[in-house]
Model the fold of this input.
Amino acid sequence: MDWLNPQSLNGCCLEVKLLDINPSTGETVIDIPKLEVVSNATSYIGHNYLTLSSFGDIELKAGTCLSFGDPDFGYIPGHRKQVILVNDTVVDDIPIEVEVYPLTHNIIEKDVAEVVEGVMPLNGVQVIDLLSQEVQVEATNFTTKRGVTNTFIRQIKTCSVNGIALTGDKALETIIKPVGMFSDLLYGRDIYAAVTMPDGERFAGIAKISGLSLPANQNEVKRFSFNLLFQGDYFEWYPPFCFDSY
Done:
């Protein structure tokens, strides 16, 4: 492991999925099943293929990011590892060889990655900034020198995204634009959004799209920007390292 050196964010991925609505209640279905993809053979740094299987049929889109770790601890030997698929593929209980972008870490046999079926990668992303904002109240407390203490009552997690609009990007045209601005039927719907970093760090949750902007400058290229407002308690963080292994 190359410790204490800057990490390039080339290969940082954002995946999105439109969540279903319960027809009886009109509420978002927040039950998001996760499936496991297993590495059936060891692949080494620089290799551009993996042998994968799962316990059921899983359809994975080109550009999908897999964050691999040890099934018992979530880490091997103390960090997670990111893999990006080159082509659409279906993984089932029969091991299949799939093409990936050249590996930056060894993927060990029996390493496991959790996936959410149906996510689509958003291409062209240049910036992904995760921001936490606390809502706080002040109360008098004369045991402190200034007589006031602050209490956090909730936290707002926001992810700012911007990038270049690529021609024919399915996630942009069928989820981001309709949900963020254009569709009367889909506007304001909840989506599942997941960000995977090159070191395997991953954060994901249920989010709303706000502040969609589509700037158009004749001397530039088509761009997009928007915010993801993560909702409620459904937010997950997979840390990239486990320091107990060292």
